[in-house]
Amino acid sequence: MKILLLHGPNLNLLGTREPGVYGNLTLAEINARCAALGAELGAEVHALQSNHEGALIDALHEARAWAGGVIFNPGGYTHTSVALRDAVAAIGLPVVEVHLSNVYAREDFRHKSLLSAVCRAKISGAGWRSYTLALRFLVESLAEP
Q: Which CATH architecture has domain 2-143?
């Protein structure tokens, strides 16, 4: 089982970017934790981060050929990108939307996700554990008949 772990804009700054909101772990540390958990669960996790909308769309399209599912933190594009929403809808893979912070405890504009309606699930507010919760959910979902 192969999983794409896809990170959107500004997530490359984790560990130094607003640690009170996003935590102290770096993106590399989150990726390593997810890879280790994936190995325990029998899944191979491939991580990618981009600050560019088109690169994220390309990664989603390419995942159709090799991934069983996607864990996706679209960052700020969550609230603005119809193109990413359409890419998630088009690929035919289960996608779990992930956010480190509790988006509903933040600014009003963060309460609306354009992607949630086309995702299998959404996990937010658990910090770096949002990713591992998503990974456990996705692996278990993919293993069900």
A: 3-Layer(aba) Sandwich (3.40)
**Which is the catalytic residue, given 7, 77, 99, 131?**
99
CA distance 83 to 54: 9
CB 64 within 8 A of CB 4: no
Q: Is 52 known to be catalytic?
A: no
What's the farthest any 2 CA atoms get from each other in the chain? 42
Q: What is the pLDDT of residue 112?
A: 83
Give catalytic status of residue 46 as yes or no: no
CA-to-CA separations, 95 to 19, 83, 139, in angstroms, rounded? 26, 15, 11
User: Using CA atoms, how far apart are residues 71 and 63, in angstroms rounded to an integer?
Assistant: 11
**What's the pTM value of the predicted model, to 2 decimals?**
0.92
**Strand order across the beta sheet in which 95-99 lies:** 44-49, 2-7, 69-73, 95-99, 121-124
Q: How far apart are the first and last CA of the chain?
A: 14
Selecting among 22, 104, 111, 131, the annotated active-site residue is 22
Tell me the domain boundaries of the chain.
2-143
58-79 pLDDT tens trace = 999 999 999 999 999 999 999 8
